[in-house]
Design a protein that fits this description.
Belongs to the ABC transporter superfamily. Drug exporter-1 (DrugE1) (TC 3.A.1.105) family. It is found in: Cell membrane. This protein is α/β, with parallel strands linked by helices. It has a 6-stranded mixed sheet, sandwiched between helices. Strands 2-1-4-5 form a 4-stranded antiparallel sheet.
């Protein structure tokens, strides 16, 4: 898959400002970025649902603008919410999608049965989808997107709203797809999801790619180890920030929702002891203190100045 200089504007808003991306066949590429970064717009263009204002995009070697109809038969798309009919059974849903793809009846039936087995839904095939769990619905949605055996599958935040078990079920299904030769482009705001699944990552911010690499390569760009300090109340964070700054000279990041102050220490000897002394000096008790390697969240903060995790509001002042 290849994206070359793709741009898209909606009125005064530039959703994409010249996107460049290349994804090798048979791999998973995680496309990461905060809301408004342009992830969904990029997927909609690649899935032939939007035309770019300029630039070129190819799926399995096919131009998605000049030859959009042929491209549609080489790609699959699963959006943020499962696009299945709750009143039909699992098998009924897949056969319905087979008709929409104009598959012959026998082929649609065979593909439905094959995919129900691949996604571990055979036992539930004749149950109406309204009785399915969230993870089962997402797996059925993935199965529907694979009826025509696409070369490239676009997953736009596929585990939004799922509990940990449902997310694990979808992750397992995605890994199985790649083992069978499918190329997967995954947009997500869950950094652990990208870390677990992606062979490569493209970080998008303000409509363009700001960094690419494997998860480890991106984390190595940040380099420094971090110390996380968890305090009893969010009201303690301001003084904790002061203590961490005095101890290390760095600029701590505060996460009020988890009562955590984090600072890069870059292997500085004695940093832990210095932080403990400064916290004691300002009278701040701690619930926990951890020395850790950098994460993809640290990469985001370094590259974009903000986190993709909407449940945390970082404060740097």
């Amino acid at each position: 898959m290849l994206v070359d200089g793709v741009a898209k504007r909606f009125g005064a808003t530039e959703a994409l400002t010249g996107l460049d991306l290349e994804v090798p066949a048979g791999t998973i590429c995680g496309v990461l970025g905060p809301n408004g970064a342009g992830k969904t717009t990029a997927v909609r263009i690649l899935a032939t649902l939007l035309r770019p204002d300029r630039g070129r995009a190819f799926v399995d070697g096919i131009d998605v603008v000049r030859d959009s109809e042929r491209a549609r038969y080489r790609l699959g798309l699963a959006g943020q919410f499962a696009a299945v009919d709750e009143k039909l059974t699992g098998r009924g849903n897949l056969r319905m999608f087979g008709k929409l793809y104009h598959l012959p009846g026998r082929v649609a039936k065979e593909r439905a049965d094959e995919l129900l087995g691949r996604f571990h839904l055979t036992d539930a095939a004749n149950r109406v989808v309204s009785t399915y769990s969230g993870g089962m619905r997402r797996r059925l949605d993935l199965a529907a997107s694979l009826l025509i055996a696409p070369a490239v599958l676009f997953l736009d935040e596929p585990t939004t709203g799922l509990d940990p078990r449902g997310r694990a079920e979808v992750w397992a299904a995605v890994r199985d797809l790649v083992q069978n030769g499918t190329t997967v482009v995954l947009t997500t705001q869950y950094l652990d999801e990208a870390d677990h699944l992606a062979d490569s990552i493209a970080v998008i911010d303000a409509g363009r790619v700001v960094a690419t690499g494997t998860p480890e390569q991106l984390k190595n760009k940040v380099g420094a180890e971090h110390i996380d300090v968890v305090v009893p109340t969010s009201g303690d964070l301001a003084e904790a920030r002061t203590a961490l700054h005095r101890a290390t000279g760095g600029e701590p990041i505060l996460y009020p929702s988890t009562r955590t102050a984090s600072v890069a220490v870059d292997g500085e000897p004695g940093a832990l002891a210095a932080i403990v002394r400064e916290l004691d000096a300002v009278g701040v008790h701690i619930d926990n203190m951890t020395l850790r390697s950098p994460t993809l969240d640290d990469v985001f903060l370094e590259l974009t100045g903000h986190s993709t995790d909407e449940t945390r509001q970082e404060v740097t002042a």
